[in-house]
Amino acid sequence: MEALNIRYTFLYLTFVFAIIYLLQTLISHKLILGRQPITLKQNPHLPLRFSSDGIFKILQVADMHFGNGVVTRCRDVLPSEFDRCSDLNTTRFLRRLIDEERPDFVAFTGDNIFGTSAADAAESLFEVFGPVMESRLPWAAILGNHDQESTMTREELMTLISLMDYSVSQINPAEDPSSPANARMVVDIDGFGNYNLRVNGAPGSHLANSSILSLYFLDSGDRATVNGRRTYGWIKESQLRWLRGVSQGFEGQKRDSNQSADLILPPAEIPALAFFHIPVPEVRQLYFKEIVGQFQEAVACSAVNSGVLQTFVSMGDVKAVFMGHDHTNDFCGNLDGIWFCYGGGCGYHGYGKAGWPRRARIILAELGKGERAWTGVKRIRTWKRLDDEKMSKIDEQVLWDLNSSI
């Protein structure tokens, strides 16, 4: 009997070791995280800079409102389009824009996903930003009022966006050891997605290693309750305080630079562009002023006026602001010397207007030409592209010209 027990024990152990061997050799590489290939974030070539042709072209993409891909139906399209229209039409339009315009940079200005329609926020984000990541273009995004309505908080969304391939987005301002004042101001800043990107001059020029254009990104929030009344979010004082510090610190850095004086642009000649989602209350005044584009719906802004326009005017460097939120407004209008421009709705799952093509805005910054090389930014222009057969180009205009602003 003892010999029989030993035999069974031996067979049992042999069986166990055989199972362990099979697990080790056949499927362990699928179970052990350390054996998986590690994929690092693909980073764009930095710093951002003007091309050797003296231009820096930005594609603004507003209100993608991406849901769940092919199963997500379009809104406000013609009856003949409805049965074959989905989120994939939005993706196709973004690819067409990139192919047509060949931008240097893409700026997504919020409501990138339609939270209530997105079953998995992360999956929808990868879908919506897929075309720009495939293009290997540097890009940045901010949040709108619908992005966080799915499975991720605003902080989680911006964290993921900042880690995606070729993204230069930031969760919030990074501490800058060379500017202690700015480093202190990042503490207790409201929102997620407040950051500044700087664009250098053209390669081979005397400004190749100097920042000559600033891009300000701000989180305008989602919704809030003020005095018992539901309203949209707004840009808070902590954000404006940070922004004033960035602008003033940049000027101070230019003045304190070790470069020779002839290689430094005066602060007044270093323009800035601002990007956020929800328009400021003053945009409503443009209904009574001359505009370029169409004013087709009421401005859906916050009941709170936090002084964004006054801050921009006092800073002096912001020449134009680019917003989203109101999909069927696509106009530009001037308030106190600053242009406020809508991107126009880009996404097919967001509301629109049947027969009125989805659209996106192009922003082109152009350098001046010196006797021997490119100089600083001379002009900023804009136009829109429509998602029609010809990718029609409309409403081209000059937003800022250095010569006319002196």
Description:
It is a single chain. With 406 residues, this protein is α/β, with parallel strands linked by helices. It is built from 9 helices and 16 strands. Strands 1-5-6-9-11-13-12-10 form an 8-stranded mixed sheet, covered by helices on one side. A hairpin with a 6-residue loop joins β15 and β16. The longest helix has 30 residues. The chain is globular and about 90 Å long. The chain starts with a helix and ends with a helix. About 7% of the residues have low confidence.
Task: Provide a concise account of the structure shown.
The protein has 406 residues and is α/β, with parallel strands linked by helices. The chain has helices at residues 2-31, 79-82, 87-101, 121-135, 154-163, 180-185, 237-256, 308-315, 402-405, and strands at 48-49, 55-61, 105-109, 139-142, 195-200, 211-217, 223-226, 229-232, 272-275, 291-292, 318-323, 332-335, 338-342, 359-369, 374-386, 393-401.
Topology at a glance:
Elements: H1 2-31, E1 48-49, E2 55-61, H2 79-82, H3 87-101, E3 105-109, H4 121-135, E4 139-142, H5 154-163, H6 180-185, E5 195-200, E6 211-217, E7 223-226, E8 229-232, H7 237-256, E9 272-275, E10 291-292, H8 308-315, E11 318-323, E12 332-335, E13 338-342, E14 359-369, E15 374-386, E16 393-401, H9 402-405
Parallel strand pairs: 1-5, 2-3, 3-4, 6-9, 9-11, 11-13
Antiparallel strand pairs: 2-14, 5-6, 7-8, 10-12, 12-13, 14-15, 15-16
Helix pairs in contact: 3-4
